[in-house]
Amino acid sequence: MGNIKFVKENKEVIAANGANLRLKAMQNNIDIYKLIGKMTNCGGGGNCGTCIVEIAEGMENLSQRTDTENRMLKKKPENYRLACQTVVNGAVSVVTKP
């Protein structure tokens, strides 16, 4: 179990190890999409890149970047992740809509 702290929203949620970051955000009414992403997101398939989040703390508690993330985020900082591709395995702090 780990806590996911959503920094901008000042909200903390509990997640079982292996939880998908995008799904946990959506289940807890955390809006991870900017306006255009709300209309054009791929539903969690890793094809659109609209669910980008910044990991403020706890990178070591997340799954490794997928090949999809490496392709979509190659010009972004290492602490940027696609929420739909990220598996949580411990405490983490997330900044939505970086």
TrEMBL record:
Coiled coil: none
Cofactor: [2Fe-2S] cluster
Keyword Nucleotide-binding annotated: no
Annotated signal peptide: none
Entries under Pfam families matching the protein: Fer2
Family matches, as PROSITE patterns: 2FE2S_FER_2 (PS51085)
Kinase among keywords: no
SUPFAM superfamilies recorded: 2Fe-2S ferredoxin-like
Domain (2Fe-2S ferredoxin-type): residue spans on this chain: 2-98
Keyword tags: 2Fe-2S, Iron, Iron-sulfur, Metal-binding
Family, similarity comment: Belongs to the adrenodoxin/putidaredoxin family.
Protein name per Swiss-Prot or TrEMBL: (2Fe-2S)-binding protein
Lineage per the UniProt record: Bacteria, Bacillati, Cyanobacteriota, Cyanophyceae, Nostocales
